[in-house]
Design brief:
Helices cover 40% and strands 20% of the residues. The protein folds into two domains: 97 residues, Helix Hairpins, CATH 1.10.287.40; 309 residues, Bira Bifunctional Protein, Domain 2 (BirA Bifunctional Protein, domain 2). A hairpin with a 4-residue loop joins strand 11 and strand 12. It contains 13 helices and 17 strands. The strands form five sheets. It has an eight-stranded mixed β-sheet. The longest helix is centred in the first third of the chain and has 37 residues. Helix 3 packs antiparallel against helix 4, helix 6 crosses helix 13 and helix 8 crosses helix 13. It binds one RNA strand of 89 nucleotides through helix 3 and helix 4.
Length: 428
Amino acid sequence: MLDPQLLRKKPEDTARILKTRNCDLDVARLQTLEERRKALQVRTEQLRNLRNTRSKAIGAAKAAGGDADALMAEVKELGGELEQCESRLNGVREEFTAIARQIPNLPHDTVPRGTDESDNREERRWGCEKKAARKDFTPVDHAALGAALGMMDPKAAAALAGARFVVLSGALARLHRALAHFMLDLHTGEHGYTEVMTPFIVNSDTLYGTGQLPKFADDQFQLAGERGFYLIPTAEVPLTNLVKDRIVAAAELPMHLVAHTPCFRREAGAHGKDTRGMIRQHQFEKVELVHITRPQDSWDTLELLTGHAEAVLQRLELPYRVVTLCTGDMGFSAAKTYDLEVWLPGQNRYREISSCSNCGDFQARRMRARWRNPDGGPEYLHTLNGSGVAVGRALVAVMENFQNADGTVTIPDVLRPHMNGEERIKPG
RNA sequence: GGAGAGGUGGCUGAGCGGUCUAAAGCGGCGGUCUUGAAAACCGCAGGGGGCGUUGCCCUCCGGGGGUUCGAAUCCCUCCCUCUCCGCCA
């Protein structure tokens, strides 16, 4: 959520910036609501003050043994007007917040303006020599490789659950696990993260905190029943919400958290997209990095976080590039996002494998997550998150980049300790 | 699943229809004393919001709803915690 003061005091400026994010703000409506709110709130508080003082007078009169009938009649009448004012005020407030909670975060000054991914700005590339060196045969995609190895079975998964699931087996299942373990070891051992294991089911309040609700309800898997449970779409949700409704001590900051979790997504708007292979699944695993920082530290932290995600790809020797998402391509809660796109020879293109964002105080405001600033009062925290990295897509990338002409897959050096020291995955 | 007990400020914990403007203790901050520290004593301290912003006011006792002139206190409901029993990886 944006600072409501921004919407109240500078609606035009805010609307102009939001326009670059394909978001139209109804400035006139907001101003009307704000005028009504002001008048109603002042009146409501006056009435409440009157009621409180009169009610106390009744108590005092009764305690003194006097007669309070006249006062009681007066306060009863007052209560009627108060009730009316309160309900009108609530109506105005509800409409205001209903609008406010649908508004995306404001982009940082360094974010390129644009409408879609073609306007994203490439920052750098890594590993291109390696990419060029592997042109001695025509690479196939991971789905074909996996099928030939006999270790990747979308048909079996379809029979179990439906489309957009996969069954892995043998060395490929193990490689998947090895990737997750390698990433966790790297982030906890060398990058200083604290490993966290969280619920994979959360309530609606938690999803609201990170911005998935109310606007993106269609992307979530909701569980049947009255409890309002959802499967997490990413570990960003439980990790970030660890500070929900808290005022954390300065000494606790910054927080660096990592979790390996499954992620569940409806992929509601993606019919017919990436139907082959395991690029886009309803269930996938991800190692997620979350930072909770003081406001003054978040921009440096975004660079640090992105570096940690890049380190994963570098150790795996996977060619990639870093792009800054343009205003039109950014996620709802982000102020700035770097995507890491890994090279997939089977598709002959770069595909997203990590997304690192600084959300500023946007999520913190929704979560009421603050810290005690020694120089002042409580202040909203800044939150960042990044994939470090998507495990399923990392498996795809390793398979396609490390494939050999004979259909085998060489195991990257850093994964071999997790693979019984094996050097290759062969059919069998 | 059955039975019961609870959710009050950073923590412990009193209050159970009207000076609650929430006792008291601990912890915290400031001061007195001291070479320094401790002890003792004195004082200050929550979050959110509004407005005519040296100040005044509203709101918050797990969430929501209700009763009442008035609710931390009574009623309904949901959530959470704890104890005992049963079941269970």
